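Today's session is about reading a structure prediction critically. Students often jump straight to the picture, but the first step is always the sequence itself: look for stretches that repeat, for charged clusters, for runs of hydrophobic residues. Only then move on to the predicted structure, which in these notes is written as discrete structure tokens rather than atom positions. Here is the chain we will use throughout the hour.
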Amino acid sequence: MKKTIGGIIAGLAFAFCAQAQSLDEGVKMIGYERYEKAKQELAPLAAGNARANYYLGLAELGLEHTDAAAAIFARYPADPANMAGMARVAFLRKNPAEGMRLAQAVADKAKRKDWEPLKFAADAVTYTEGGDVQQAVSWYKAALQKEDNADLHLALGDAYRKTSGGGGEAMNNYEYVTGKEPRNSLAHSRVGSLWYGARKYDLALEAWQKAKDADPANPLPYRDLANAYFYSGKYDLARQNVEQYLSLSDKSCDDRIQHANLLYLTKDYAAAIGKMQEIISTCGEKPYMYRVIGYSQYESQQYDEALKNMRIFFTKQDPAKVLPSDYLYYGRIMMQTNHPDSADIYFAKAVAADTAKDKSETYRQIAEGFKELKSDTGYAIAGAWYGRLVAENPDATALDYYYWGFWSYYGRKYEEAAKGFEAMEAKYPDQPSATYWRGRVAAAMDPEAKEGTAVPFYTKWLEVPNTENYTKKNPDLMQAYQYLALYHYNKNDKPNAQKYLDLITEIEPDNKFVKQVKEAMTAPKKGK
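Below is the predicted structure for this chain, in token form.
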């Protein structure tokens, strides 16, 4: 049976409507930077629709497929949009003169009320590098004289962001759109990124929340939130947002790499290793991928595997892009695989690679590496690195001074420990722990409490307000009381010896040390 004319018209109308919806969806996906999804929508339309062809080319550019995009734009050489696409290609190929020539040719096609060629020409400059951004601004303004729409204001705002001091005009255009179209998710996203750049973090978070509410399918606010939390060191929140972003995006290789990095930073080392190995197998390898694997394996105590992957990293990575942390991790891996001499070499390289005026964090990391040996030698070297940190940094923290003395003490370098705690007490007189540890070090050098070198430090520490309010289980009190009791016993000063023995008994009624001293005090003298 033949179709009726009405049926044919209805079918054509349906097909046209479906094509229009698919084109709109493809354009939307490009705005959301979902380029693979955009290609799926646009590819079936491109053969018979110059505009769909143009956006298909933009999707390829978004995927950094410049040659493929050029071939697509070349299908419609006289079409203004596709000519503008070729201008973008010229800019990307570092030929700004050709890019501006083509963009100007596109702008010249605008007649009377025809505004779109002006926008295509301006977009070619705004979304690449090397063109005349002020000319793009002029083209957008000329287009707005003919047609006032949200896309033009968004693009004009993007152009202003590339100009010196253009943030205010950019915000004006973005907020113009949000005022006219409160459900415009892209505009809210742009407002958020501008506020974030201006360090107005509460306003940025508010704008990104509006972007999410306006269109829950927009992945960009989650990406921006992930980046914001990443740079502020809030890695758990960054991971939550990047995982939400991945659920909405095309899951590009770059997105997945960022996810793997955050898995490492949130200490999910097994997941970081697995994810990065998966990326290598599906997206191809890049040197820094082996960094994340090696770091994660070290943190997981897989030292032999970490050594293997860090060796691959150093083989493949451009030496100019090696970070101080790479040498630090490699040195720590060497320590754990019984190559201490090699560890020293890489720690020295870490210091040399650290171009910061203040190398404190590098020194701390090196000290941590030696501390992990859990030996007298390792502790002593850790203390020495903290000593170096203090010597070179006038703003060293109380904790840095403390660790200089503390690790030197546990490394049995008592004279060095004494220097550390003496310096800490002088620099931070409000820190009673420095006084206590001066006593602890002196007591270690006078283990039989015959010289009394620890007495003035322990006595001073015990006189500090609130010291007596420490929990009675505090082992520091026990250390001080026992030394003082033994010292006074050695001096035959029974009243003071008894005073400290009683204080020990309050803490621990059945203390063996107390029993031993009391027995010695009551034992008859030899020859009596």
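Discussion point for the tutorial: The chain has 29 helices and no strands.
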